[in-house]
Amino acid sequence: MKKRTTKKNQCDFCNKLYPSLKQLNQHKKEIHENPKSFGCEICGKKFNQKSILKSHQKTHDKNRSKLFKCHRCDYATDTQQSFKKHQNVHDRQDEKFSTMVNPIKCDKCSTFCKDKAALSGHMSSVHPKVLYQCDFCAKFSKVKSRLVTHMKIHIPRTSKN
Question: Can you name the residues that pair with 18 across neighbouring β-strands?
């Protein structure tokens, strides 16, 4: 007869139970004490578990096959979840388009804008002429302030005495 493992080690923060003290301590460390301590070296995005970081890092692999391709634009992804999220963007655009009087189509993607001002805003935010690149890694950003924030992950923090 097999010995049954009981989950008797309970987390003080979320009440989850773990069969061993080691697993409980690992849970506390990763989830509660040091959230988002695993950073992606490519884009700077942070995660609270190493396994999630490893899964995320696969999205940067240029050799991954893009199984889901949008028939309305150049978007392609390898996950159905990302593809559905992308399709929702088109659906929202379609709803917006149906209420526009004389929409203007972006010549770089399938977006329609209500007027020239909206198209200008779309072009500067979605299709900027200048991209900013991180001094430390391959990350690019359309917005300089976001890149400045990103670059802080590369600079070690010094403790004040």
Answer: 9
Q: How is the chain split among helix, strand and coil, in percent rounded to 5?
A: 40, 10, 45
SS3 call for 55: helix
Number of helices and strands in the chain (H, E): 5, 10
Return the H-helix or E-strand segment holding 118. helix 116-126
Question: Could you confirm whether domain 9-59 is CATH 3.20.20.80?
Answer: no
Domain ranges of the chain: 9-59, 68-126
Eight-state DSSP code of residue 75: -
Closest residue by Cα to residue 150 from 54, 27, 41? 41
Number of Cβ within a 10 Å radius of residue 18: 17
Single-letter amino acid, residue 9: N
**Cα 142 to Cα 128: distance, rounded to the nearest angstrom:** 6
Give the integer Cα–Cα distance in Å for 24 and 5. 14
The Cα 138–Cα 150 span in angstroms is 11
For 8-62, what is each residue's pLDDT tens digit?
Answer: 888 887 788 888 889 888 887 777 766 666 788 777 787 777 788 888 877 777 6
CB of 98 closer than 8 Å to CB of 105: no
The residues that bridge with 133 in the sheet, in sequence order, are 140
Give φ, ψ of 91 to 5 degrees. Answer: -60, -45
